[in-house]
Write a structure and sequence with these properties.
Elements: E1 24-29, E2 33-38, H1 42-45, E3 51-52, H2 54-78, H3 82-88, E4 89-95, E5 98-101, E6 105-106, E7 111-121, E8 124-133, H4 140-144, H5 149-153, E9 162-176, H6 177-180
């Protein structure tokens, strides 16, 4: 496996079905980062005035980028499949540098998380990125089929992708479960 395109997020992430905030991996380069999508559900916006909260957007970003990319890189380094990795490791969300929100999402509005890896060392990943609201009928899978690294690094997207958030220094770590029990 060269990347996570086509992999079901539930097969790599350890989050349960009500906490999993990634629908699909759209573009992935293990050295650069990831683009993933999510559409908030009624459960996500319940008791929040119909709004997908900013804290949940940050969590979706961390799951899509830090956790998913971290698991992928570790599976390559350890030469093991994702099931083995999930059994032995868990992703931890460590810190947020800065987040600026320019908009919001409601139930059923599709978003993409675009995360660029700034550093990866000792199973710890630091990323910067953005979250965009995507037009409802936009075919993301077709659009990202021929997407390039240059486009990714330049945050090159159609004008109707609306910026929702800009995130810097989002830090996550993949840790051995046995270390968590001590």
């Amino acid at each position: 496996m060269d990347n996570l395109i086509g992999v079901n997020p539930s097969s790599i992430l350890v989050h349960g079905p009500t906490k999993l905030l990634v629908d699909a991996y759209l573009w992935h380069d293990a050295n650069l980062g990831m683009i993933a999508s999510y559409t908030p559900t009624l459960f996500d916006v319940n008791d929040h005035f119909g709004i997908f909260r900013g804290v949940d957007m940050v969590e979706a970003f961390a799951q899509a980028i830090n956790a998913s990319c971290g698991f992928f890189i570790e599976s390559k380094k350890l030469n093991c499949n994702l099931d083995v990795l999930k059994a032995e490791f868990t992703p931890l969300f460590l810190s947020i540098g800065q987040v600026n929100f320019m908009g919001f999402l409601e139930e059923g509005e599709k978003m993409i998380c675009v995360g660029q890896i700034k550093q990866y060392k000792f199973r710890q990943m630091t990323c910067d990125g953005r979250i965009y609201k995507v037009p409802h009928s936009f075919d993301l899978h077709s659009y990202f089929e021929n997407y390039t690294s240059e486009q990714f690094l330049a945050f090159d997207f159609p004008e109707d992708f609306l910026p929702i958030a800009e995130l810097t220094n989002i830090v996550g770590k993949v840790i051995k479960k046995e270390k968590m029990l001590k």
